[in-house]
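FORM 7B: Structural annotation worksheet

SECTION A. Query
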Amino acid sequence: MSTESILRNLREEIDNIKMIDTHEHIRKQSDLISEGGNLFTSLKYSLVCMDFISAGMPPKYWENNFDEEENWKRIKPYLDSVKTTSYYSTLLMNTYKNLYGFKYDEITDENWRELSGLIKKAYSKDDFYDSVFKKLNVEVAFLDPFWDPGYISEKKQMFLPAPGMDPFIFVRSGKTRIPNPGGFNVPWW
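SECTION B. Predicted structure
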């Protein structure tokens, strides 16, 4: 048996292993859709938004979701500084390319609309999370329900609650310490 054949067989076996995702912060699909479910919201609700802020983007830019053209104008000046970060490259390669079918290595003036459309299309499918889990071979995910504990009951065949100690550890003063681009009411943001 050739080395190529062995590696191909090994890859197939590995790909068939069911995965358990040990910690997620997955938002409700209805929330994603209601906010536009586009490139901007995809970036906003990932850790990439912090990379944009570190690159100089004003945190207030994440507070409102304007029309897509305006959102692109806000994102574009910071892309060169962000595109080499691990969060961005992981989002581009693993999510945008592998899950949504984006075929480019960079997001540009010429292709961002296509990517935003692919994201919208994916989010609007009734079986969005089911299809993602199937493609990634995830059997179940532990969901941190910190922001919306009732969410698990909607998808209980897919999500189990990830017990968190956050409410016991962080003092809830009501004051924020850093910008909160995701709009979450989280004490340490």
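SECTION C. Observations
The chain has ten helices and three strands. Strands lie at 19-24, 138-143, 159-161.

SECTION D. Sign-off
Analyst initials: ____
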